Amino acid sequence: MIVTFLKLIGKYCNSKEGSLPRKALTFILRDIVKYRGKVIKKNLSLCFKNKDNDQIEHDYYSVLSKLILESVGSYNLTKNEITGKLGISPDSIKMINESDKRVVILCSHIGNWEVIIPALPLFINKKIYAAYKPISNKKTDKWLLEVRGRFGLILKPMEQIARSFYKEPQGVFIFINDQSPSIGSKGKWLPLFRTDTQWYDGVTKLSKRGDCMFLFQKVSPLKDGYIIEYENLNKETLLEEYVSKLEQNIASFPEHWLWSHNRWKNKKLVEGINL
Length: 275
What we know:
Blueprint: H1 2-13, H2 19-32, H3 37-47, H4 53-74, H5 79-84, E1 86-88, H6 90-97, E2 102-107, H7 113-119, E3 128-132, H8 138-148, E4 154-157, H9 161-167, E5 172-176, E6 188-192, E7 195-199, H10 202-207, E8 212-222, E9 225-233, H11 238-252, E10 269-270, E11 273-274
Parallel strand pairs: 1-9, 2-5, 2-8, 3-4, 3-5
Antiparallel strand pairs: 6-7, 8-9, 10-11
Helix pairs in contact: 1-4, 2-4, 3-4
């Protein structure tokens, strides 16, 4: 039932009337449901002191509606239609394709990851693996794996990605690294916009076990597409550089980050005391 509904919505989103669902969904999320309004306000207040946070919040709901409908609609797009939405630097593609090392790409929730990441095999001539978290509904999970992998992306649960990493000395591995680790888990603390923030540090462990090229995926949203650039990261200061570049990317397009995610739910512990 869920899969059938998503397919029908996807066809409608790609029609000439596709702007109508976006306006309707924006109105529902922002003005009726006030979806995660408290979380969004808290996150913005932690990050920005000198910006118009009310305007960013207002614009964010429109972006969120676009992400939802664009993700669903993308499942019905052809290869040419998908690649037409993405502008990837030719130098970046050449750098990745010609690398004789493993390539690790650290991404974020800027732009539409459901459009960008599944389309990368259309540009990169290597096996591409992405870590993901399975969902409880088996039928929906199976369908999502199929649509996300329809162009050749290989998805692996987070706990299995390391095996593929060691088996593929020239593979490409993708991690979306800006979400909050689960409560109680270990991670490295680094400031984001001067706010103490916990980060997954599994990629730093991988950097010590193999010869890799590490890249940051910088995304510049357009009206109907995305410009993507890949910037080198120093593996000795991997996480610090990732956070710095992420902060710059967010500052350039503040309404395009995933503010509705409860990013600062974890509290830093010092000698057993919550700060």
